[in-house]
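tmp note - Acyltransferase
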Amino acid sequence: MDLADTAARLGVPVEEVERVHRLAGDRPSAPLPDRADAPAILDRLAVRPDDAAEIMAGWPGPDSPRWTPELRWLLDRSVALVRADLGGHGWLPPGPALPRERGPAWRHLYVYAYLALVDVVRGYHRDHGIADDVSWTTLADLGRNLAVDRRMRGEGWPVMQSWLTLHARGGVYELGRLQHQRGDTIGLHIPESGPMTPAAVDASLDAARAFFPRHFPDERHTEFSCGSWLLDPQLREYLPAGSNIIRFQRRFTLEPYQEPDGIDADVEVLRFVFRTLSTPPDRLPRDTALRRAVLDHWAAGRHWRWRVGRFPI
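out:
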């Protein structure tokens, strides 16, 4: 196939199409579930009705005029690319960010890839003795991220589409309040799922302490880790010592600060605290202590920092 022509028709840089072609090679893809089964699967993945309706409207049926040859190629090869790294736990973009305004097939192409991989990764989970309820709870982060992206008017998806490949490869698991990513350490992530109370965090950490030795006995983990603006000690200037965020911070020993490669902490604060990337600061709400802290910090001409911390398992 002509990769340059495919890239032009997709409206993306040719280098990104070449990357998909190189990483996927001729490796096997995986089929989508039957269309008749899709609504029940989307429900189990916590996809909201408005998002589910769009996904079903753009479904890649064999006769759908929305699905051009280049879109079908990208879907097939993106699934193959992710499947080839089953069991991996690093950051893995599944393909180029598409012009999502062109319709549901374009907007949700990587959702269809995720759906094609659900049975693949659940098989991986079963091979590791992981309970079905943990599988579905973990994979239901799809619905949460689609809902957030809708609130962000589509600004969040380019990052989310890569994040979700961790779930589709068995690289991350939601155990109570926290998500836990396999790696040299157990990386902690904080989904939008309610208060981050010390008791809820303790229960999640205890679950992870039992989960990983049981299901991945060949992996030796001695530390939990986290990289986040939430670990920025500057937050202590604004939030009370008894706040959930500050108590979470105090679990960690921070690494010396280094400017992170490719991460702008101010942008990440916008993303996670306000769920926007484009709203001017003077139009952002001040309805929580955290939001007031963020805005007061910026008003003083200061910036947030991305910090990395660890503590023993």
